[in-house]
Design goal:
It is globular, with a radius of gyration of 19 Å. It is built from one helix and nine strands. Helices cover about 5% and strands about 30% of the residues. The chain has two domains: about 50 residues, no CATH class; about 80 residues, Beta Barrel (OB fold (Dihydrolipoamide Acetyltransferase, E2P)), CATH 2.40.50. A five-stranded mixed β-barrel has the order 5-6-7-9-8. Strands 1-2 form a two-stranded antiparallel sheet. The chain is mainly β and about 170 residues long.
Length: about 170
Amino acid sequence: MANRNTVLDEGQPDRRPTGNRSRQTLVGDLVSRPLPAPDESSEEYWDAAARGELALPRCAACRAFCMPPTAICPACGSTEADYVWEQVGGAGVVRSWTVVRQPFLPGFAAEAPYVLVDVELECQRGLRLIGRLVDGPTVTLALGARVSLTFEALPEGLAVPAFTLVRP
C-alpha cells in the first residue's frame, strides 16, 4: 500500500490521506461495514443514536437546528451559536432517493442493492437527513412519501438513523 513517501508513476508524490476516519474490521475474507467514528462535534449525535434517539444541535441564538454543527449558524449568522443538543422525533418526507447497486465501500457490498433517502424532517423546514430506507429496494417510492425514524444496530453498541415508509 502506498504511503506519503511513495512516488507515483508520473513522478508525483502520493497525497492520499494516510488515516481512515471510519473503522472497518476484517471478518474472514470479508470487510465489515464501516462504523461511525464519533469526534468532539458529533459525539452527542452518536450517543443519542445508540440509545435509539435522534438528537440534533440547536443554535442558542436563534433556536434553529443545524446538522452538522458549524462555527457559524447558517440560519442567523451567529458566531456564538452555543449549540444545545435536543431530541427530535425524526418523522419527515422523502425529498430524493437513490438505489445503491454498486457500493463504493467494500463493507456495504453484501447489502446491495439498498435505498438511501434524503428526508426533510418535520421539526424544521429545510432540515434534511440522509439514511437508509429499511423497506428495501423493491418498495414503490414517491416524492413527498412520509417516513418515520428507526435505527440500525451496529457492532460495539453503535446505531445509525434509518427510515421506514409510513403506510397510509
